[in-house]
Design goal:
- The complex is a heterodimer of chains A (about 120) and B (about 110).
- Chain A is mostly beta strands and about 120 residues long.
- Chain A has no helices and eleven strands.
- The radius of gyration of chain A is 14 Å and the shape is globular.
- Chain B is globular.
- Classes of the chains: A mainly beta (about 120), B mainly beta (about 110).
Chain lengths: ~120, ~110
Amino acid sequence: EAGVVQSPRYKIIEKKQPVAFWCNPISGHNTLYWYRQNLGQGPELLIRYENEEAVDDSQLPKDRFSAERLKGVDSTLKIQPAELGDSAVYLCASSLGLAGVSDTQYFGPGTRLTVL
Amino acid sequence: AQTVTQSQPEMSVQEAETVTLSCTYDTSESNYYLFWYKQPPSRQMILVIRQEAYKQQNATENRFSVNFQKAAKSFSLKISDSQLGDTAMYFCAFYPSGTYKYIFGTGTRLKVLA
């Protein structure tokens, strides 16, 4: 079974430039998550999708971050414009989406973003 | 607020020895799940082991086992017969049932020495 796929693995941009990350979840997983992981920290949730609906985007900085999951499968996270403080690893995860029970999340390899 | 604390930023262990990583959490929830994830230099977060809070029996997965103390809100990970491939960051995660929200600790960097 293929895991969660993310691209690119690395991205270096100058501040104020736009950047986009792509994620393809495990087949059959309805729930998709985007996390940001700062150096030396655990991941922090940015947004969660159930199918194509963003059901929790309370931690997403909406002035510069946007995300979409148009067909309820793969997803794109965008930053425009990027700031120095956005340098981090952006992780995508997916899960089956089992309401009311533990729903184990499976993570992709992440995209390391460096903003110069 | 629900928090997860990993008090050991770094640890090292000799190959084939046993090491225990600690994790404590703070919650008023009664129904939740706990996880240990491993993140090697490749950055892929890999599920190591999972524990349901309603189960008294400690979870075990091959060389990995947990010591779950619900009253003390403690969830430590024991790695037996450590291997070089166990070198990684280890994150403890707390998951209140039905919230879909993992709360991660800050991680413990484990180095297995040859």
